[in-house]
Design goal:
This protein has 206 residues and is α+β, with helices and mostly antiparallel strands. It contains 8 helices and 4 strands; from the N terminus they run H-H-E-E-E-E-H-H-H-H-H-H. Helix 5 crosses helix 7 (174-189) and helix 6 (158-169) runs antiparallel to helix 7 (174-189).
């Protein structure tokens, strides 16, 4: 595994514009902490390795997340502003919400020391699975009239169903919602998940 992974270059290039400086900031800070640190892609997201996983960073539609594999042994979770994101720094929307490069490098070296010593990751509390979403009336009516779409929707996981339901809910105009509802039925009839385009790209690159 090379120290600099070109797959992370590609990940950053595909990320939303606001996220790129955040990803670059984290990447530069982590890799500058020690020459032994290597980059890799795990679970489709950038991670950094030294005798085991150290930390990882992710970009989402409206925020980024950055966290250490051994969590609270390295840094206390974020509080106040928005601690709902993955990792220990909450939902990150700008570089200003991150520690400085020097501070990140210091945390990275602490995580390296834990890996050197063979300290295990703390046990993570099991999350209570979220229930299946409540299906809005217009989608329920449409599914009732479309057997193939209804069968695909029923086979989706709760999170897969939620992706469709939330996508409809995000529409601000009635015309937009109607268009999304039509696309939902089209994709479900073809046996597709909400994010089938991204899954197809990921499979092609695997």
């Amino acid at each position: 595994m090379s120290r600099r992974d070109p797959r992370i270059d590609a990940y950053i290039a595909r990320a939303p514009e606001f996220a790129r400086p955040i990803l670059e900031h984290v990447r530069a800070a982590v890799t500058a902490a020690a020459p032994e640190i290597e980059e890799t892609l795990k679970w489709g997201r950038p991670h950094f390795v030294y005798k085991g996983l150290l930390c990882g960073v992710s970009a989402f539609k409206a925020h980024c997340a950055f966290g250490f594999w051994k969590g609270g042994l390295v840094v206390r979770p974020a509080s106040g502003r928005d601690a709902g994101g993955m990792g220990q720094f909450g939902r990150i929307t700008s570089v200003a919400e991150l520690p400085s490069r020097a501070a990140i490098a210091k945390l990275v070296r602490a995580a390296m020391a834990l890996n050197e010593a063979g300290v295990p990751s703390p046990t993570r509390a099991k999350r209570t699975p979220r229930p299946r979403p409540k299906v809005p009336a217009d989608l329920a009516r449409a599914l009732k009239a479309n057997t193939r779409a209804r069968a695909t929707f029923a086979d989706l996981s709760p999170s897969g169903q939620r992706e469709y339901v939330e996508w409809l809910a995000e529409a601000k105009r009635a015309a937009t919602r109607e268009k999304r509802l039509a696309m939902t039925l089209q994709w479900l009839s073809a046996g597709k998940s909400r994010n089938w385009q991204y899954e197809k790209r990921a499979a092609a690159k695997a």
